Predict the structure of Sugar transferase.
Amino acid sequence: MTTRYSKHLPGFVFLSDLLLLNVALYNSHFIKFNTFRPDNTSVTFILLVNIAWVVVSALSRSFYVFRPLLLRDNINKFLLTLIYHLLCVFAIIYFFKIFNISRTEVMLSYSIFFALVVAQRSALFFFLDYIRKKGYNHRQIVIIGDQNIAQRLVKSFSQHPEYGYDLSDFISEEQMADMSEDALIQQLIEKGPNEIFICYKQMNTGLLNRLVKMGDTYLIKIKVVSDLILNNNYAQLVNYDNVPVLHLNVHPEIGLKIRILKRSFDILFSTTVMVTGAPVFFVLYTITKLTSKGPAFFRQERIGKNEKPFYIYKFRSMRVNAELAGPQLSKDNDPRITKWGMIMRKARLDELPQFWNVLKGDMSVVGPRPERQYYIEQIVEKTPSYRKLLRVKPGLTSIGQVHYGYAENVDQMCDRVRYDLLYLQNISLNSDLNIILKTVKVMVQGKGK
């Protein structure tokens, strides 16, 4: 395409976000008060939210869509912006003492806004992916330097047409050796690419500086391609003054942003479940208490993040003193399980009190299931990589539970570990939401045990 409509994309996304924000605000007001016409307090709240969003969004630049298309990263960035925005709004409400705003309206507004933006971003990314595979919205690139590195780069672009790159020229090291730096730069300017990829094993610092200045002058993005080949490793660029260093790791480190997102989501989600689900908790408590002797709640020591022990809470599903003979894993037709306990375990309702563990900070909504020290020692002996799971908060539900289910012995527990290790590679709010939805499906279908 000769016309690059993508330059208008940030503005479109920004205005679209603002429109969806107001759709959420007015619809939440309608749900709460059965009218779209806001009163004076709601008008103040709506104006405050809009002004705060324009400022926070502009600072975070969450409306920018970068190549390659990564929906997960974009949603995470948007959610972080949403959290900052919420904190900003709450600070202003507290400072100006605007305390008569409906809490329900606020929660509905942000929940609807988030859902609308997730749908909007998903549709936008699907559209961009589709048109780029059809040959539209492409950028012209020039690759210079080492031929082997360049071939790997071109192969990657050919396997992923959704990146939207067209190679207009390749200038090898041999060709560059036969021309002056001035001639090379002039040739690149005449090509007029959108981006230049520099593939070098040994970088000529002087030439690199000239190329960077040329890129700034002619609005051409300059990108340097390493000759490293990474399989399942993850690389993070760390700048030590003027020395760029690649930090390699088998699994990506969980950054502050992800930790903030997960903790904020844990608090919001667990609070919502415990408040709205209070009648369900009361019914489960009463039936558990009436159907078998003993307390309604059951607590047991588990090992959490950084091997710190904590007590996990459940509705009691087994008879009292079920482990007098020592630690035992549950199994099909386990005689220790009560009749009512069997029903709860099928729908995993016995796990609901663990939202209190989530709220306290012992657990997360999604994460590897916490185990007892007795079993951890046996698992580590067979699967040493299990120790990696102890670096993160355990979860009320996990990808291992969804795809593998409960384990009846240590060997099955070791098999389940590989699912949770995969989770460590892809920790994000999107994957957490996906696991939660799959968990709800398991609960509805009664596939727990």
User: Anything to note?
Assistant: Strands lie at 139-145, 165-172, 195-199, 221-225, 234-240, 243-249, 297-303, 309-315, 364-366, 395-397. The chain is about 55% helix and 15% strand. Residues 5-133 form one domain. Residues 215 and 221 are 6 Å apart (CA to CA).
